[in-house]
Design a protein that fits this description.
The protein has 219 residues and is of the alpha/beta class. It contains 10 helices and 6 strands; from the N terminus they run E-H-E-H-E-H-E-H-E-H-E-H-H-H-H-H. A 6-stranded parallel β-sheet has the order 2-1-3-4-5-6, sandwiched between helices. Helix 2 packs parallel to helix 3 and helix 7 packs across helix 9 (184-198). It is globular, with a radius of gyration of 17 Å. The model is unreliable at 143-152 (pLDDT under 50). InterPro entries: CheY-like_superfamily (IPR011006), NreC/VraR/RcsB-like_REC (IPR058245), Sig_transdc_resp-reg_receiver (IPR001789), Tscrpt_reg_LuxR_C (IPR000792), WalR-like (IPR039420). Residues 149-214 form the HTH luxR-type domain.
């Protein structure tokens, strides 16, 4: 039984890059529903075609790709945003994640990495170029030391916390199962238990919770 086709939309203000990425994804079997060159048209078109994944450049002028990401994730719940940017700057990554992006990939990524990232984003994973998840975790760890940190947090078991840390690093359930030497089903059970305790709805929200609460990336 074949996998359902993942639908995508590519947003970038450089026509050659935008069309090239769209063509490459189409050749790899993705359904490219649309492209856009700015934030306003990205939101307007996304509302209509409702792609599974929007590949979003951040440098779109004003409004920015961050603004478009925030609007799309708030208005179109079924659509996930994967940032594809030339910038690997710490601040850009943080802004994108806070706006609701499911992941962040730099444009120097290979075609194979891009295909994998789009597929994983569509499946609900949080995906980051190697090293960027660690930067985000480190920043939020520093930001987490506030008066609000005394607020009572839900109690997670040691194993749930361990799985949560690995989710925050962008690992899939199968990768986590292999690392912890447990079954794939056990990992999913821990994820679902943690979602219920934290009153979250999916793995992306789970990863964002881990990032925002500064969970140590070491596991």
């Amino acid at each position: 039984m074949s996998k359902p086709t993942v639908s995508v939309m590519v947003v970038d203000d450089h026509p050659m890059w935008r069309d090239g990425v769209a063509r490459d994804l189409a050749e790899r079997g993705f359904e490219v529903l649309a492209t856009a060159s700015d934030a306003a048209s990205a939101l307007r078109i996304a509302r209509t075609v409702k792609p599974d994944v929007v590949l979003m450049d951040l440098n779109l002028g004003e409004p920015s790709g961050v603004t478009a990401t925030l609007q799309i994730t708030q208005e179109i719940p079924g659509t996930r945003v994967l940032v594809l940017s030339a910038s690997g700057e710490h601040s850009d990554v943080l802004e994108a994640v806070k706006a609701g992006a499911s992941g962040y990939l730099v444009k120097s990524a290979s075609a194979e990495e891009l295909v994998d990232a789009v597929e994983r984003t569509a499946a609900g994973d949080a995906v980051f170029t190697a090293g960027l998840a660690g930067l985000v975790l480190g920043e939020y760890r520093r930001m987490a030391i506030t008066p609000d940190s005394e607020t009572q947090a839900p109690q997670l078991t040691d194993r749930e916390t361990e799985v949560l840390r690995l989710v925050a690093k962008g690992m899939t359930a199968r990768q986590i199962a292999k690392k912890l030497v447990i079954s794939h089903r056990t990992v999913e059970n821990h994820v679902q238990s943690t979602l219920r305790k934290l009153q979250l709805h999916n793995r992306v929200e789970l990863a964002r919770y881990a990032i925002e609460h500064g969970l140590d990336q070491e596991a």
